[in-house]
Amino acid sequence: MNTATFDRPIPDLLTDRLGFGCGRLKGGGDKATSLRLIHAALDLGIRYFDTAPPYGLGSSESVLGDALKGRQENVLVATKVGLARPASPGLMQKARAVVKPLASWVPGVRQAVLKGMARRAAPSNLDAGFVAQSFEASLQQLQRGRVDFLLLHEARSHHELAPLQALFERYVDKGRLGAYGSSTGDPLYQLVRFGSVLQYRCPPPDATWTTVAPSDVLHGALRFTAPAVQQAMALDRGLTDQLAGLLPRGTAPASASGSLALAYALARFDSRLLLSTNDPRRLVTTVEQLQHITASPDWRPAMQNLHAAFAPAGVPCAR
Asked: pLDDT digits over 46-93, tens only?
């Protein structure tokens, strides 16, 4: 078991450690907001963008390509193969526009729609021919001749991956791909390992052991870690006061649980961390709070105390 000391040097948090998850980038009537999201991320210093063909009802890659066009920043782009792009993104966008207002006043509509989509979702297709076509389509949508990372999307143990390794190596040799790996929306133990880049759900705060490599990419800290931060603060007034001291003056710790969760994950792990939102203002607020937290000399001690609040009695801080 490795013990986390929370005192390792951390390079530039924005350019080297943070990435933006593009799952919520959408076209149609939401495209202007999606473009503002990417431009806000760039203005904040974020240089890593993670997308996939089915994200944003099939529009995420093209929106990201449009948003990056004309910008001068050097960025890293990761996309995926395995899950198909929706056949009619425009139609799905219109259907979403109808369902969204209903969901605000009809109980259970959103959950029913999501469950129905999950049942109809096709399993991963990692046939080499399909993957090659998907990759070419992604390059076209992104308006790029090369992507930095290409990840298998929800590979399963029955998939034959040897032909894909040979295919990806050819892409690397031709300069069309930087590196490749595997991704899942689930925890690491459910990931089928492939290549040099692994993307998976951020380990829970109360995990007594983890093995997270610097090349790994973690997602879900805002969704899964922030509630644990809120609970820890509710149980410990002293901890809440300490965390409040990290935040900009006048910021209630309860309103900054997302920023605190990201700060905790950045202190605990050496890997890249994805954050995602569909609100440009929330993105700016979260990152600015994160900058304030990590600039404080009390950041690491506070994160160690936060981790101690998560850990079972007698269990050391673990990585």
From this structure: 999 999 999 999 999 999 999 999 999 999 999 999 999 987 655 555
Location of structure tokens 């609040």: 309
> How many C-beta neighbours within 10 Å does residue 48 have?
23
Q: Give the whole-angstrom CA distance, residue 223 versus residue 271.
A: 18
Q: How far apart are CA 133 and CA 150, in angstroms?
A: 13
Q: Tell me which residue has tokens 């969760």.
A: 261
What burial class does residue 108 get, using C-beta atoms within 10 Å of its C-beta: 0-12 exposed, 13-18 middle, 19+ buried?
exposed
- The total of other beta-carbon atoms located within 10 Å of residue 116's CB is 10
Element (H, E) at 152: strand 147-153
Quote the CA–CA distance of 230 and 310 in Å, as a whole number. Answer: 11
Q: In angstroms, what CA-CA distances link 111 with 99, 106, 116, 118?
A: 11, 11, 9, 11
List pLDDT tens digits, range 4-56: 445 544 447 767 999 999 999 999 999 999 999 999 999 999 999 999 999 99
10 Å Cβ neighbour count for 115?
A: 11
